[in-house]
Amino acid sequence: MDQIDDRIEAAFTAVAREKFLPRKQRRHAGEDRPLLIGHEQTNSQPTTVLQMLQLLDPHPGHRVLDVGSGSGWTCALLGELVGSTGEVFGVELIPELTDLARRNLSGFPQPWVSVHQAESGVLGAPSQAPFDRILVSAEASSLPDALVEQLGKGARMVIPVSGRLNIVDRDETGSVEVRRIGYYSFVPLK
Q1: Rounded-to-integer distance, Cα 79 and Cα 95, Å
Q2: Cα separation, 185 vs 137, whole angstroms
Q3: How far is 52 from 177, CA to CA, in rounded Å?
Q4: Average pLDDT for residues 47-51, to the nearest whole number?
Q5: Dist. CA 20–CA 29, nearest whole Å
Q6: How confident is the model at residue 97 (pLDDT cuts 50, 70, 90)?
Q7: Which positions are annotated as active-site residues?
Q8: Alpha-carbon distance 30 to 18, whole Å?
Q9: Which helix H or strand E contains 156, and what residues bound it?
Q10: 3-state DSSP call for residue 45?
Q11: Domain coordinates in residue numbering, the chain
């Protein structure tokens, strides 16, 4: 991977991982490994999150969908990257984690970031589409058309599919290109 963007490093400095971990896990915040946050879900390994954000390439003013928001850490990181002219719309399937993410995010002055309860049987947030960027922090068995359809023109999605990260780009004409890189392990996308 190329050198990490200074903006992403600054976001990691501004948004402490430990604030998004259960109390008993906070002492492990500096470790480069996934940590359990409850409900069989994890707060992803920092180097993986860093690489995903680098590949996603969010910019100020972008509208970003964060699928599988967990404890809210990636939402807060994305909030730093898109700034007050952007928007981060997080969705989480597990109600207790939705509540946890909202509580965690309340400690950050980012009114442009929100986490919503995912609708059962609905992937992403089609009623809020299109998005400039979509980050998916759970592994799909195949590339979900429902999420690809939520990408705007000139947009990008980073999603783990069958053990590999996929970078999905939709160009200005609406054509979609998919690149597969690296091997990663994530909780399953539901």
Answers
A1: 21
A2: 10
A3: 17
A4: 90
A5: 9
A6: very high
A7: 44
A8: 8
A9: strand 151-161
A10: coil
A11: 6-183
Residues 137/74, Cβ–Cβ less than 8 Å:
yes
Q: Are 146 and 124 in contact (CB under 8 A)?
A: yes
| Multiple choice CATH, 6-183, 3.30.470.20, 3.40.50.150, 3.40.190.10, 1.20.120.80 | 3.40.50.150
Residue 178, SS3 per DSSP: strand
d(CA 3, CA 169): 21
| Residue-wise pLDDT tens digits, 150-177 | 999 999 999 999 989 999 999 999 999 9
Quote the DSSP letter at residue 163. Answer: T
Average pLDDT, the chain: 91
Q: What is the pLDDT of residues 101-157, one digit of tens each?
A: 999 999 889 999 999 999 988 999 999 999 999 999 888 999 999 999 999 999 999
DSSP code for 143: -
Which pair of tokens denotes residue 74?
A: 């990636």
| Contact by Cβ (8 Å): 18, 46 | no
Phi, psi of 78 (to 5 degrees): -65, -35
Q: Report the Cα 7 to chain-centroid distance in Å.
A: 16
CA–CA gap between residue 159 and residue 164 (Å, rounded): 8
